[in-house]
């Protein structure tokens, strides 16, 4: 009986110690308050607008709009693989939403990035011959942006930013959801 009580006491002390360590590790500290989720939802003041692939003659929106279950059933990730050709006004909205921001060392050190980047909105740029020359990949789940090929060389202090609210308004006017498989 004494051995059982001693073992129980040791386990309880171990659980209390683990709980205390976890509580101290998770408790908010001063350094955590300085972290900024990046990229921001809208371009930061001082960012430079960059027109993606200005020589493109056409931009198409392709949306990964199928549920994961439907993707598995159909063997496809979009219901419209040909996409939707953007009007000149819609293209202008997208083109004016891409920005490059040069961070200070402190800003770069304090950025916290989300790792989930799974884009569902693809703006594909085509030349006059119909060849794809570039693609903006947008994730409304984590507010991430990527492009292929890169519009220009960047380093750790450069951050691509996107005007998510502005483009989201346009997408909703087109009847396109931005809350897909998030």
Task: Please characterize this protein's 3D structure.
The chain has helices at 2-26, 30-33, 68-74, 88-95, 105-109, 164-173, and strands at residues 36-38, 48-49, 58-63, 84-85, 98-102, 111-113, 121-126, 132-139, 144-148, 158-162. With 182 residues, the chain is an alpha+beta fold. The chain folds into two domains: 2-33; 37-173, no CATH class. The protein has a five-stranded antiparallel β-sheet with strand order 4-3-7-8-9, with no helix packed on it. A three-stranded antiparallel β-sheet has the order 2-5-10, with no helix packed on it. The radius of gyration is 23 Å and the shape is globular. The N and C termini lie far apart (53 Å). The model is unreliable at 20-37 (pLDDT under 50).
Task: Offer a few descriptive terms.
182 residues, globular, 5-stranded antiparallel sheet, alpha+beta, 10 strands
Write a short abstract of this structure.
The protein has 182 residues and is an alpha+beta fold.
- Overall geometric form: globular
Largest sheet: 5 strands, antiparallel
Gyration radius over CA: 23 Å
Show unreliable segments: 20-37
How confident overall, as mean pLDDT? Answer: 81
How many strands in all?
Answer: 10
Strand and helix order: HHEEEHEHEHEEEEEH
Q: Tally the structural domains.
A: 2
How many helices in DSSP terms? 6
Structural class call reads alpha+beta
